[in-house]
């Protein structure tokens, strides 16, 4: 049985993720009390007909959620393999989403949403630390979220392969919250100072040719590739299933995009899955990249 536990911050997209998983063929149960998780698995085992299951647990369960960690430990003791998907987003994004939907945060006692978000983040620390996959949905479109979940939970038989997600970003827009490794490429020559390249992105051949023409860029890629090739078996040996490698420049439009694209190409290997995301590539005002 493929068993996925979906959890994370309120407003980070758990309901949307559950809809995507349901479309992928998962039997989905939202807001399942933690105390019932192990019993629920027993019932499913007795049925022997449902092979893909996703349950969402979060702070809406109140006191039940406080026992989430012990419920997961109980699953382990019974030999039930599972994967935890933790969804999060930046504070300003969560605040905007709550203002747009006008829904009440489950921990907001007097309408102070920001305080509730920070309290919830504290309460979820232990579960987040046990997550197999962590997704920051701040800048993900619904289509991008669907693509991410497809890569993570497809039925292609590749679930046991380490997923390497290469993310380009701009430091001026903040670090990716889910990054495991962060590399700063702002020392590379900047296409933003070339008028004909300024308004293009690192996905344009002209920008790629400019960035990669410099020996320092090629040396960087050689060393990055060697380092990550060395690290991946070490992470896999300790049970890590996802590695997020973030490549940053100033605005996330030129240099980081080129290096991320080339690094992802060099990391391609049958033993791993490679994903790529350009978080700030087309962000308005992404210049000085």
Explain this structure.
The chain has helices at 14-23, 37-47, 68-77, 91-101, 113-123, 125-129, 142-153, 205-212, 215-237, 255-267; strands spanning 2-8, 27-29, 52-56, 83-88, 133-136, 162-170, 181-184, 242-249, 272-278. Strand 2 (27-29), helix 2 and strand 3 (52-56) form a beta-alpha-beta unit. The longest helix is centred in the C-terminal third of the chain and has 23 residues, at 215-237. It has a five-stranded parallel beta sheet, with helices on one face. It is of the alpha/beta class. The relative contact order is 0.14. The N and C termini lie far apart (46 Å). It has two domains: 2-159, P-loop containing nucleotide triphosphate hydrolases (Rossmann fold); 163-278, no CATH class. It has ten helices and nine strands. The radius of gyration is 21 Å and the shape is globular.
Helix and strand layout, with pairings?
Elements: E1 2-8, H1 14-23, E2 27-29, H2 37-47, E3 52-56, H3 68-77, E4 83-88, H4 91-101, H5 113-123, H6 125-129, E5 133-136, H7 142-153, E6 162-170, E7 181-184, H8 205-212, H9 215-237, E8 242-249, H10 255-267, E9 272-278
Parallel strand pairs: 1-3, 1-4, 2-3, 4-5, 6-8, 6-9, 7-8
Q: Which stretches are poorly predicted, pLDDT < 50 over at least 5 residues?
A: none
For the record, the count of structural domains works out to 2
- What do we call the CATH topology of the largest domain? Rossmann fold
Percent helix, as a range, is 25-40%
Q: In the CATH classification, which architecture of the largest domain applies?
A: 3-Layer(aba) Sandwich
Mean pLDDT: 85
Count the helices. How many?
10
**Total strand segments:** 9
Can you summarize the main beta sheet? Answer: 5 strands, parallel
Structural class: alpha/beta
Distance between the termini: 46 Å
Specify the CATH homologous superfamily of the largest domain. Answer: P-loop containing nucleotide triphosphate hydrolases
**% residues in beta strands:** 15-25%
- Identify the CATH class of the largest domain: Alpha Beta
Strand order of the largest sheet: 2-3-1-4-5
